[in-house]
Structure formats: C-alpha cells, structure tokens
Design a protein that fits this description.
Blueprint: H1 4-48, H2 57-70, E1 115-120, H3 125-128, H4 132-135, H5 145-163, E2 170-175, H6 179-189, E3 197-202, H7 217-230, H8 243-262, E4 270-276, H9 278-289, H10 293-298, E5 308-312, H11 320-325, E6 342-344, H12 346-350, H13 359-365, H14 374-381, H15 386-389
Helix pairs in contact: 5-6, 8-9
Amino acid sequence: MATVPTLALLQAALADAAAAADTARVAASAADAAAARVAELLEQAALSGTASLTHEPRLLDQTARERSATAPTELAPAGPASEVAEEPFFWDAVGVAPPGRPSGSPVPRRRLPRRIFILRHGESQGNVDESMYCRVPDPEIALTQLGQRQAEAAGKVVKAICDADGTPYRLAFYISPYRRSKQTASAVAAQFDPAAIAGVREEPQLREQDFGNFQDLDLKEREKEERAKYGRFFYRFPNGESGADVYDRLTVFEDHLVRDIDAGVFPEGTSIVLVTHGLALRVLLARWFHWTVAEYEAAYNPPNCQPLVMERAPVGDEDGALCLADGGACDPAGQAPTKDLYRLTDASLALLGGPGLGMEELRAMGSMLKPDSEAAWRRTLGESGDVAECVLP
C-alpha cells in the first residue's frame, strides 16, 4: 500500500502533466492560426497578382524582428540615424521569386556590399621580436607603436575610398579575436564618424594559423625548414595547423558571410571590413577566388595594414560604374554566384605578387575561377608535367 508522501507526489505529478497538456494545446492552436493566416495572405497575393507581401509585414518577419529585439545587436545601426541606416539588417519579404522558387513566396533579396576591405593587422611585437612567441600567448601579442600608426593610416585610406563615392555609407567589421587585430580594428574605426559604423562581430575563424602554443625558437626554425621542403599549404605544425586546416575553417566563415549577403542583411551602401592576419588573408582570398594550391603558395603576405579592396563587379557586359553605384545592377538576372560579383583591384593584387607572379597572372587570380572556363584546366594542372607523364589504364 502506498504511503501518504508517495500519494502526494503522485497527485502533484498528475497535476503537472495536466498543466503541460493544456499549455501544449494552446501553443498548437496558436501555431495553427498563424500558419492559416500566412497561407491566406499568400493566396490573396497570388490571386491579386501583387508583387509585394507588405500588407501584414509582422507575420512574415516576426521571428527576425523579435530576435533582433532580444539578441545582441552586433551589426545593428549605431549612432544617429543616417540615410543608409533606414533599411533594417535582416532579410525582407518580397513577392518576386528568383528562378527555382515558387512565384509569390517570401524570399530573401540579395544585397551586395559595395566593397570588402581586407586588412592584415598592423606591425606586432611578434613581427619585430620572434622571442615574444616563447613567453606570450599568440592571441595576446599586441601592436607596436608603429603598428598603431599603421592602423590609423589604414583607416584614413579606407575612409578616403568610401568618401570618394560621394554617397552615404556604413561599415560592418568582422575581426579576428587576437589582440593585435582588435587594436587594428579599433584604430581603423576611430577614423570614422560613429554614425558610419554599423557594428562589429568577433570571428574566431579569422584568427592566425595556429603554430603550436608557446614556441621554441630553435625547434620552430627547423619546422619552418621542413615546411619549405614539404609544402607551405599542406605542412601541419606539431600541435598546430596546416594551411589546409585554415582553408577549411575559412570556408565555413565565407559560407556564412555569403549567406548573409544573399539574405539581404547588408543595406545598400554598406561595406565590410575584415581584420585578420597575413596567412589567413591569403587563404581567405584563395578560397573566395578558387586559387589553386600552387597560386596560394606563390602569393606573398601583403605588408602590415595595407588595405586590400574587393569591389563589386558586373557579370558579362554590364556597366561597371553602375554596378559599383547600385548593387542591383551588377547581376540583373540574379543568377551569378555572389563571389563572382567581386574583383580585387589592381593595387591590391600588386601587394600579393611574388617573384613567380606577373600582373597578368595576378589579374587572373583577382576574380573567381570558373570550373568550366578555358583557364580552369590549365591553372589547375599547372606546369608540372604530371599529365604528360601519367599513364591511365
């Protein structure tokens, strides 16, 4: 026979179960009602032939609005409102679907950032004294005084490029969590009016290649000699990363960035500033433009805090100046991959050139390599002669 305390516990459990069942029924009823309302709106839009579903915008973007109200606003507009800041930083519903989507369905509208600036941090203490890596964790290595001045000068260069357009603009920062990168980003942002800074996001995927915790200088020198023989892309430092490892994590970062671009997160007039490290910068470009491993290994790190600039570029014979002024004019059909709508400027390419790379080769590396292009096989196979020596069954 059950004791009194046991009966009390059973009764309490039954009461909790009944309350939970009531809550579930209410939630299910509310969800059904919301789904029915959205279906009704979509049917009305389809019948009336309207291209916009803005009569009841709250139902369509309710989740995004509520999330932006409760989550940290890393990329939310900062400072006084400006002409560019009127557009929200989340995807908006439109009724005109791109190819492959049902007509009349809410879809994200791609909005291309005007430019993507990529900066290697300013001169760091580790750049001038490698023994720092023996006693200071790599993420804690700071800028030198020269590095601080370089970062301030880089901010002035970025500002001059943006000001030259003569139109309102904002900057969204993505930065490596390393101290020297944060100091660089802060010095760059300080050159702008606060209203021009849309926000900042720390991205660990933009960190430097991991060379293996605290470093022994003699051992690290032997490892670098070994890397030169093995290949700089595939060689993995003991307890650290290879260039291929960095490539994998930056693939994830770029996928997320392109997804945000395709979702219309960045209002027209926004530019992105990526603050990272030398090797990570080259790997990021190799992933974006689909460089071959040989091309990556032939490219050099740019000098500290020399901004590299990726500008919007049109597909086909579209007007380049119009594309830079209006992102929607870059790809009117909406079918080109986002990465194919950017080019590295010649000045940026010149900062990457090594002894084996002339300007012609660099220009080819400044746009996305298409797999069906005439150059794809030539660049992929290189001049190693492997194909001629290969005997296939």
